[in-house]
Structure formats: C-alpha cells, structure tokens
C-alpha cells in the first residue's frame, strides 16, 4: 500500500478546518454539529475523526490558527524600521488580516468567527489558555514597539509601554468587533480616526 504523503495529509486537514470554519461562521459553534461539518467538507466521519477526535478539537485548532494569524501580523509590523505610527500600523495590519480570506472566509465572516472565538474562551479553559498566550506575546511585541517610538522621540517617556500596548490591542479588537457586527468598516476609517485623535493638542483641552 502506497504511503500517503504529508502534503496530502496537510491538505485534508486544511479542508476540514476551512469547512468547519465556514459552518461556525454561519451558525455558531453550538449551532453546528459534527454532521454539519461532515456535510460541508464532503468527507466520512472516519476521515474527519482521524484528524480530530471531536468538534471541540476542531474549534481548538481553528482558535490556535486564527490567533496566530492575527498575532503574527502585528509582530511582523512591530519589527519594521522605522516603526510606523499607530494609525498607519493598525490600518495596515488589520486591513491585511481581514482581506486575507483566512479559512476561505470573506472579511465580515472572518471577523464574526474571531468574535465567537473570543466568546468561547470564557467557557473553555483550553481556548482561554491559547488566548492568554497570544495576548501576552502581543503585549511584549507592542511594548517593544513603544520603546521604538520613545527612541524616535515621538512618544512621551512617562507613558508606561504596557499601557500603550494594551490600548493599541484594544483598538484592534474593537475594529474587528465593529466589522463583525456592522460590516464595511474600512481600515482607512480607523487610520484616519486615530490620526485625528493623535493630532489633538492636550494644552488646549486643559
């Protein structure tokens, strides 16, 4: 019997994850059964269970991949020299992530899937651990970016780097939530809005 190539195994795993992601984006995790996934991917139960013992394992794999895509995009951007300002950075990265058709989903469906994943971490310890790890890694990367802003003289030295990092992450999360709920949230809108806020004169406010 000929050995199945790793390429074939990887392609089959990809087929299952992408099909399951489409189901979850349409109907939610709890509204999707394994039978729904099997029908979507056109495979037998045995073929799917060879890769994933159950639905929770598929959800965990999708969570890990999705968070890795988002985290990787921001980590890559944080290593740019010179570092782009927050408005340009967030607009560029989020535009790229949402336009990338992750799991074969269009941007609003992908954003909806991300929001569902965040929600699911509140009840699933395994998913929560994946999210915690990704969040901690992003905070470190963004704190380094804040240090680069300081070195460039464009950020006040008395602002804690972790505070800035967490605020930037929160802005990115809010953008994804808006896309999931309302759609048509263009990256340039976020970029322009942040640019406007950054141009405010605190002396005139006080």
From TrEMBL:
This is TetR/AcrR family transcriptional regulator. InterPro entries: BetI_C, DNA-bd_HTH_TetR-type_CS, Homeodomain-like_sf, HTH-type_TetR-like_transc_reg, HTH_TetR, Tet_transcr_reg_TetR-rel_C_sf. SUPFAM superfamilies: Homeodomain-like, Tetracyclin repressor-like, C-terminal domain. Residues 10-70 form the HTH tetR-type domain. The keyword Transmembrane helix does not apply. The keyword Transcription regulation applies. Residues 33-52 bind DNA. Coiled coil: none annotated. Keywords: DNA-binding, Repressor, Transcription, Transcription regulation.
């Amino acid at each position: 019997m000929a050995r199945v190539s790793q390429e074939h195994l990887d392609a089959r795993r990809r087929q299952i994850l992408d099909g399951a992601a489409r189901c979850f984006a349409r109907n939610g995790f709890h509204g999707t059964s394994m039978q729904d996934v099997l029908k979507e991917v056109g495979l037998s139960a045995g073929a799917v269970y060879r890769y994933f013992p159950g639905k929770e394992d598929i959800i965990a794999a999708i969570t890990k991949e999705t968070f890795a895509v988002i985290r990787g995009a921001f980590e890559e951007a944080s290593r740019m020299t010179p570092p782009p300002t927050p408005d340009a950075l967030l607009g560029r990265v989020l535009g790229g992530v949402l336009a990338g058709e992750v799991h074969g989903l269009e941007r609003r469906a992908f954003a909806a899937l991300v929001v569902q994943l965040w929600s699911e971490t509140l009840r699933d310890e395994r998913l929560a651990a994946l999210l915690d790890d990704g969040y901690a890694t992003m905070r470190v990367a963004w704190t380094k970016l804040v240090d680069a802003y300081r070195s460039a003289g464009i950020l006040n030295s008395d602002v804690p780097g972790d505070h800035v990092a967490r605020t930037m992450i929160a802005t990115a999360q809010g953008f994804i939530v808006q896309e999931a709920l309302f759609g048509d949230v263009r990256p340039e809108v976020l970029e322009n809005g942040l640019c406007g806020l950054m141009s405010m004169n605190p002396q005139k406010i006080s």
